[in-house]
From TrEMBL:
KW Membrane (keyword) present: yes
Protein name: Uncharacterized protein
Swiss-Prot/TrEMBL keywords: Membrane, Transmembrane, Transmembrane helix
Residue spans crossing the bilayer: 17-35
Originating organism: Candidatus Methylomirabilis lanthanidiphila
Taxon lineage: Bacteria, Candidatus Methylomirabilota, Candidatus Methylomirabilia, Candidatus Methylomirabilales, Candidatus Methylomirabilaceae
UniProt keyword Membrane present: yes
């Protein structure tokens, strides 16, 4: 348990911009669309991104040029 807390503190310390952005996003979205829609959208986005990353779809594009 102590290792998990240490990892969390290190993550916040090394990447504070991520947590500042998250706080700004949550505040702005809650004001604009309400807390229920914010929670729903955030949950859907998190699930989508997590599955996309875990399935390896993101790794297929690393280092490749995308032609439009």
């Amino acid at each position: 348990m102590a290792e998990a807390i240490q990892l969390l503190v290190a993550t916040v310390f090394l990447r504070p911009y991520v947590f500042v952005f998250l706080a700004f996003y949550l505040t702005a979205a809650t004001v604009a669309i309400g807390w229920r829609r914010t929670a729903l959208f955030t949950g859907i986005a998190w699930i989508t991104f997590t599955r996309y990353w875990r399935w390896g779809a993101a790794h297929g594009f690393v280092g490749r040029r995308v032609m439009l």
